[in-house]
Amino acid sequence: MPETSETIEPLIFVIFGASGDLAKRKLIPAIYDLYKRKYLPKKFAVLGVSRSKLDDNSFREQVLFENEFLELDSDSDVLAGEFRDRLFYQPIDTNSVEDYALVKERLEELDETFQTSGNVMFYLSTPPVLYDKIPKFLAHYGLNRHDGSYRRLVIEKPFGTDLASAKALNKSLKQYFDEEDIYRIDHYLGKETVQNLLVTRFANGVFEPLWNRNYIHHVEITNAEPIGVGSRGGYYDTSGALRDMLQNHLMQVVAHVAMEPPISPDAVAIRNEKTKLFQSLRPIAESDVSKYSIRGQYTASMMRGEPVKGYREELGVPDDSKTETYAALKFFIDNWRWSGVPFYARTGKRLPTKVTEVCITFNKPPQTLFRRQEEVLHSEHNQLIIRIQPDEGVLLSFGMKVPGDGFKVKNVGMDFHYSDLADNDVPEAYERLLLDCMRGDATLYAHGDSVEYTWEFVEPILNAWQHDSSIPIYGYPAGTWGPEIADDLIESEHEWRSPCRRLTDDTSYCEL
Ligand code: BG6
Predict the structure, then answer these.
(1) Which of 162, 267, 310, 460 satisfies CB 3.0 to 4.6 Å to 442 for a cystine?
(2) Is 225 touching ligand 1 by the criterion CB < 6 Å?
(3) Hey, whose CA ends up nearest to atom 2 of ligand 1?
(4) Are 492 and 342 in contact (CB under 8 A)?
């Protein structure tokens, strides 16, 4: 992160939902780390707002001193003490407009004490039902706009649950905040390697000339998590993998892989290219959904020698739930560059390992020169694998001659790991995103239009999965790579790249 505190204007950072999990796990640790690394201005304060009946001190205890991240921080003593004095808390009933007068009062006091020039960043980390209420109630007290200073609104996902609700939310927010002051968080955009996709493509002469239908056979995007839904069963069951991961995070990754070069690396230029890309997604008709998608749900099994519950046994999940914990899609981008190139995206919980990666498979050479009848040691399709997490890096897989007589060819890899860089301090996604918002840079935030386009794209799938009972939901044992039938989505001799072996021998796939 090249910026220094000199370039960040004074501000108050207001967290709605401050007693919740995200504030404790991600937001406060991220702000503290920015503070520690001297990215924040001297004139700076945090105001936590939520229903819980806390005061400044008990809030400080809860989010700072009872928080795991601080225990792990060896030089926390002095710094945490200083940081503590910048944390404040205001309990309110977020549903009651009158209570926002208390927020106004508190902001005025803090502005006076910390000389923050009226700049405020409001962060909504609340249940989504409050997303349109809070801005409206802030506006009631004139807190949404302020002459000569900024008022920015940061919104967590989910941004809507379908196209209609996303549109309604955009419309409602824009009554109170200008689009340029609305920051829709997609934490995948804060990941260093997602941003690096643009650099790999547009800062090198070698990749981009090949980055099109003439040389690329197909593109795969995989997101796998070994964890189940844990204590989030209640939320997850109303969402499912398509809404939770694919419509937002993975579609943003698709945009970075597939968009045209922007005219400059700024927010407007990048957003324009993404919008064009999303507009080029070929719609999947509801009647074709079974041809282009597979959904699955994990069933009880053993992972790493431990018994693991099935999704339907998880807390808060109905025992006849049809919610998918795995989703795989095949789709096309109908534009000049990608015409005819299949894209595949999959995401799932309780898969064998944690990995997010993009795999570009190139066409094979026009002739197969080096083949022995009995031994074909390699795939002739070169692959470029961009590992988004963990073990961030880039791997190019290609064929080399095996030393010795004849022409035996073997696949080898040129493998770059971020961890090999001397200065390998990969910033946490939330840190990067919060800092960008403080600088007024929305490049890594989702634009209202792109959110609507991606909902529009997934909506027929959501509808078909909900209403067409002939579309199966496949069970897959926890610890496997999802329903085996998902391999059939991929054409011809290809299959999903397998970043690691299966963790269970139980392959009893079934239709639920
Ligand atoms: C969240 C989803 O947005 O992203 C979670 O709601 C998921 O279900 C998480 O586990 C994954 O994020 P990451 O950064 O760990 O890949």
Answers:
(1) 267
(2) yes
(3) 244
(4) no
Question: CB-based burial of residue 425 (10 Å sphere; 0-12 exposed, 13-18 middle, 19+ buried)?
Answer: exposed
Nearest atom, ligand 1, residue 236 CA: 8
Q: Which amino acid is at 489?
A: L
Distance 57 CA to ligand 1 centre (A): 31
Residue 16 to residue 10: CA distance in whole angstroms: 20
> Checking DSSP bridges between strand 510-511 and strand 473-477, what pairing results, if any?
antiparallel
How would residue 508 be classed by pLDDT, with cut points 50, 70 and 90? very low
Query: How far apart are the CA of 412 and the centre of ligand 1, in A?
Result: 32
Burial class (CB in 10 A: 0-12, 13-18, 19+), 49: buried
CATH 3.40.50.720 fits 5-156, yes or no: yes
Q: Average pLDDT for residues 20-27, to the nearest whole number? A: 88
Q: For the CA atoms of 296, 251, 221, 27, what is the dihedral angle to 10 degrees?
A: -90
What pLDDT score does 470 carry? 94
DSSP structure class, residue 321: -
How many angstroms separate the alpha carbon of residue 6 from the centre of ligand 1?
Answer: 33
Is 249 catalytic? The answer is yes
Task: Compute, in angstroms, the gap from residue 455 CA to the centroid of ligand 1.
Answer: 18
Ligand 1 binding pocket includes 324 (Cβ within 6 Å): no
Residue 468 has pLDDT above 60, yes or no: yes
User: What DSSP element (H or E) covers 176?
Assistant: helix 163-176
One fold for 5-156 and 189-363+421-427+449-501: no
The answer to whether the CB of 314 is under 6 A from ligand 1 is: no
Predicted TM-score (pTM) of the model is 0.89
C-alpha pair distances (Å), 184 with each of 173, 268, 272, 329, 393: 11, 15, 16, 25, 27
The CATH homologous superfamily of the domain defined by 189-363+421-427+449-501:
Dihydrodipicolinate Reductase; domain 2 (3.30.360.10)
Residue of 217, 218, 249, 256 marked active site: 249
Tens-digit pLDDT profile for residues 359-386:
999 998 888 777 654 455 567 789 999 9
Q: Output the average pLDDT for the chain.
A: 89
Ligand 1 atom nearest to CA at 239: 6
Give the separation between CA 100 and CA 49, rounded to whole angstroms.
10
Task: Answer whether 244 contacts ligand 1 (Cβ < 6 A).
Answer: yes
Q: Which atom of ligand 1 is nearest to the CA of 157?
A: 3
Report the candidate in 121, 123, 88, 119 with the shortest Cα–Cα distance to residue 106: 88
Other CB atoms closer than 10 Å to residue 58's CB: what's the count?
Answer: 14
